Amino acid sequence: MPKSGPFKVFLADDHPLLRTGLRMGLSQFSDIDFIGEANDGFKAVERIKQNPPDAALIDVDMPGLSGVAAVRMLRKHYPEMTLLILSSYSDKHFIEEAMQAGADGYVLKSIDITDLVELIRAFVNKEHPMSPYLMDLAVDWEDTRPDMEPDEEDDPEDFLTRREKQILDCLARGQGNKEISNSLFISPETVKTHIKNIFKKLDVKSRLEAVIAAKERKLIN
Fold first, then answer.
1. CATH number at 7-139
2. Backbone phi, psi, residue 57, to 5°
3. Predicted TM-score of the model (pTM)
């Protein structure tokens, strides 16, 4: 069941004015519970561990420990926590670093506060939000990263990507490539590539076999 709130939110940014502005903006929403802030990566990791939020907004470039490094550390301990990188940069290099570290999204600081809150709600509920301030490369990172080659002893839960699990859910609902493409905002060709990789990783030859194998291994409900 989707979470309706309150959504606990933490903010890490080294600019006091930005923190103040976001804190005041987020406080306008009754379903947002602003639980803390930090001005560098080390403090952010420490305070988040003390009181884990539903979502953490983390500046990409902070003194001491960068936002990307902080996300990497947090992701190891909190696989389900929503970690969003805030940035003024739209360079591909920054975006790819953030996604490789485990960020759920890469959001431009020019975003309107209402749009930011909508993104927080959507990400916490594992939906697939679209916003002109949410960089496309961030949404599609799992479509372009290299496939992991599993060892024979590996559990599929460990080597299936998040996107592949999403596509397995779609296959279980009987969706075709076009429907999957529309619901996940990726191209039909990308869907085909993911399905091919799923077949290889699960050692199956059809969509039905993939769904059965995934259910047997409790990869999907």
1. 3.40.50.2300
2. -100, 120
3. 0.62
